[in-house]
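hi! just following up on the protien thing from before. the input was this:
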Amino acid sequence: MAEPWADPVVSGLFGLLLGLLLSALFWRRVPRATSDPLQAQMLESLGDAVIATDRQQRILYLNPLAERLTGCERATALGQPLEAVYRCSPSDEPALTQHPGAQRSHRVLHQGAGRSIQVSESRSQLKDAQGRVIGRLYAFRDISEDHALLCALRESEARFQDFADTAADLYWEMDAQLRFSRVSGKVRFLMGHEPEFVLGKTREELYAGQPVERTPEFEAHLKLIRERKPFNDFIASWRWDDGTVRYVSVSGKPMFDDDGRFLGYRGVSRDITDQKLAEERIRHQALYDHLTDLPNRSLVLDRLRQDILQAERSGSEVAVLFLDLDDFKKINDSLGHDTGDHLLIEVAGRLGRCLRSGDTVGRLGGDEFIVLLPQLSSPANAAGVAEKLLQTLSRPYRVQGRDLRISASIGIALSPQNGDNGSELLRKADAAMYQAKADGRNGYAFFTEELNRSVERRLAIEECMMSALERGEFRVLYQPKLALDSGRLVGVEALLRWNSPQLGEVSPVEFIPMAESNGQILAIGAFVLEQSLDFVAGWRRRHGEPLSVAVNLSPRQFRQEHLTETIDNALRQRALPPSALELEITEGVLLSGHDGVDRQLQAFSELGISLAMDDFGTGYSSLSYLREYPFDVLKIDRSFIGGIADSAADRALVEAILAMAQRLGLKVVAEGVEQETQRAILRELGCDQAQGWLFGKAMPEQELMRRFAGQYSA
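and the predicted 3d structure came back as:
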């Protein structure tokens, strides 16, 4: 609390008055209570302890408060040396401000018995009425309580300063002009400047040259400051001279005096650089492809939405190009995924270099890319870009020491002609891309209404197929396979049919590829196998004849783990020998690139299951397959059988196939036999078996029983 003599004027007047009183008393030799009653009363009732000494520092006077504080009575003290009564030592408190005629300081007064107190002391010369120095005057008071409070305050201040200086955060204060008046903590780390440089400057002065973006959040922050309101967790950034950027979260509150006048702000700035960078990394990973660093599907759709809105305002068009690399899987299978990944990175770079700054190229996954072309004036512009992309991508690539070539197929959808929804445009561009592949690959195709109907049909089939198996809509029919020499039924081929309540009869040509693509072929294939084996087991029990059933295996089924064990168990559960089952393998299985093709086929062969190469003659490498894999049966495709009676070339090809099969020890089945002349020719050429409409279309098992059971009962 404030001392009564803290003001120099007050202290001077007090000292002068006290000196005059004491000099009057001492000059008259009246250091007793017989002096002027008013003067004595003033000395005795002072709120400060007073001791007066002569020039030899012997005590001439002390008032009651001095008696109490020193613990020495007046009668004993008078005439004693000052240090015998007023036993003081220096305090560790700093010296007080001095003013003319007085010396002031903090001291420690030792009271005896180990006790001491803090006192504030004022010393001055004692003069008589003529101004002659006759001694010294000591006035002091007990400030122990104030001292304890002051020490606690200083300790608290020291703790706060230590915390502020060592904290990870930056503590700051601003004056009423919003100039930094105090900063501590990681000033250099966060702001890129020493504290001395920051003090006295406004944020605008420090922001000079900083890339400040006037975002809505920034404007709202400035509004709070103008209104002298607190703010919390405002994100700001500081760019150092070397380009380093630190992100900080700033919180502050205004300061006001007792009269409500604005004094400034104080607050803290917390470093969130690592958090900010981590958020940016997570955001980047969520929006960009990890391999090529191109925008992924999510970001592509967002940009497409913006492009469509901009096109609506400007009356322009947006083109979506869906690009798929042709036969990319062969590169992965033959050269490895690492080479394939490097090739994809090269493709991404070439695509980007072909486009304008406002265009977007993204990767959907695998070998599928998307190109967005906004602000087009004509579909011809999209066609020109597609041609440029195809030419660029077709140039040779140098990847890991290899020279590679690859082409692409591109589908193009336009907005607003083909729609104004991003997902819909991607779907339609995808459909157009498949049309480009069907047209021979290494080309592009625009989406058309005919394609639209095809897409709608495909979506309807996929939707209805989702639960068709559970609803019992699939059924297995059996096409008879006869021995040409005897005309007897020796086997059947299991063929799947689907009658949808919504779509009617759906051709396997339509739904089998879809089931293969979406994975439903696994459940459907298991259903066909079980139904077929149940039928053969029932036939054998009834007739005792070794009828076999041929079942097609799709590429996706072939990749199942433990497929061999599954089929073996299915045969054992029905007490069927392996010879009761024939697995038809298409070229698609052999081209699938599955590492275990050879091992899987060998395992089937070792079990005794017959392996048939389906549609022989249509694939470009069928002969090599016959050499590499353990096939037992060769099925001649119907395209060769149809002209066997009228075309010498077809007859010569079939004759050559039969001769080759006989040399290799393979059984031959002719597919698509529809005429008696075709059967006669095949029998003459030595073909083993045949199937086709001449012998019967695919039929339910009950009808098959009725038509062929008689030949066994006979």
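The longest helix spans residues 144-166.
The first strand starts at residue 49 and ends at 54.
cheers
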